């Protein structure tokens, strides 16, 4: 455990830094509420940081003492930075490894954990893509790396029964890539799960048009949907019969 004394002139921006660290600890975006401008402007715009102690420190800077405690020592190469803390080069280099870790977690049945890995990989690439001109060769190259990760993420969300998120992501893919069979198939499954019957049938029909070899898989999904519809109709008849007999 070590102690570090900081002078007032060196910590004038500490309240903003501390807010970001607290956001990270709470699982939020560390730059939440900030925009691109100089640091002094940031301070004036943030009349309240949401924490009374930081607001007071921002108004009256004073010497600070930081206690730093080592929690653990990790072997070289074992520590993985969060995406927000990486340089552009580090983000690009980290994506294949994060993707691999997501695949391994998925194979182990750890679906939510796999989804988190895919999300981190997507976040790395999205951050890089934001710096490119939309539609430029570099932007398209990054987008083509994002798409399979996003499809893997959607597969996890299907299993977690978060169907509307799957609908949103698959639709965004199909708005750009109209021949993406996997996006149609996953969106079809999500539509079926939330009783969008016509939309599900249309997506499965598109899958068959693009890849007829998938007929057995699509037929299985359509049969499952038909069974669920019959069960739902039977349940509705019983429910409504009870209502009208009262």
From TrEMBL:
UniProt GO MF annotations: peptidyl-prolyl cis-trans isomerase activity
Domain spans labelled AIP/AIPL N-terminal FKBP-type PPIase: 6-70
Q: Which SUPFAM superfamilies does this one have? A: TPR-like (SSF48452)
- List UniProt keywords, sorted A-Z: Cytoplasm, Phosphoprotein, Repeat, TPR repeat
Q: InterPro entries from the xrefs?
A: AIP/AIPL1/TTC9 (IPR039663), PPIase_AIP (IPR056277), PPIase_dom_sf (IPR046357), TPR-like_helical_dom_sf (IPR011990), TPR_rpt (IPR019734)
* Lineage per the UniProt record: Eukaryota, Metazoa, Chordata, Craniata, Vertebrata
Subunit details for this protein?
Interacts with RET in the pituitary gland; this interaction prevents the formation of the AIP-survivin complex.
What subcellular locations does the record give?
Cytoplasm
Q: Where are the TPR repeats?
A: 181-214
Name this protein carries in UniProt: AH receptor-interacting protein
Q: Which domain of life is it from?
A: Eukaryota
Q: What cellular component GO annotations does this protein have? A: cytoplasm
Q: What is the annotated role of this protein in its UniProt record?
A: May play a positive role in AHR-mediated (aromatic hydrocarbon receptor) signaling, possibly by influencing its receptivity for ligand and/or its nuclear targeting.
Its transmembrane ranges are none
């Amino acid at each position: 455990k070590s102690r570090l004394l900081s002078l007032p002139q060196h910590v004038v921006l500490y309240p903003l830094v501390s807010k970001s660290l607290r956001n990270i600890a709470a699982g939020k975006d560390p730059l939440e509420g900030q925009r691109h401008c100089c640091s002094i402007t940031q301070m004036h715009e943030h009349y309240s940081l949401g924490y009374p102690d930081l607001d007071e420190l921002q108004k009256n800077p004073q010497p600070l003492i930081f206690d730093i405690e080592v929690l653990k020592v990790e072997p070289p190469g074992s520590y993985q930075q969060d995406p927000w803390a990486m340089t552009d080069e580090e983000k690009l280099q980290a994506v294949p490894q994060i993707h691999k870790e997501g695949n391994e977690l998925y194979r182990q049945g750890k679906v939510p954990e796999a989804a988190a890995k895919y999300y981190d990989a997507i976040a790395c690439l999205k951050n890089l893509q934001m710096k490119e001109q939309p539609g430029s060769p570099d932007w398209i190259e990054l987008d083509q790396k994002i798409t399979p990760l996003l499809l893997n993420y959607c597969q996890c969300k299907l299993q977690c029964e978060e169907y509307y998120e799957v609908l949103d992501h698959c639709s965004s893919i199909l708005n750009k890539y109209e021949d993406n069979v996997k996006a149609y198939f996953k969106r079809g499954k999500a539509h079926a799960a939330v009783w969008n019957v016509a939309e599900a049938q249309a997506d499965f029909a598109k899958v068959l048009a693009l890849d007829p070899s998938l007929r057995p898989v699509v037929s299985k999904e359509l049969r499952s949907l038909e069974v669920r519809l019959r069960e739902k109709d039977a349940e509705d008849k019983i429910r409504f019969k009870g209502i009208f007999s009262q």
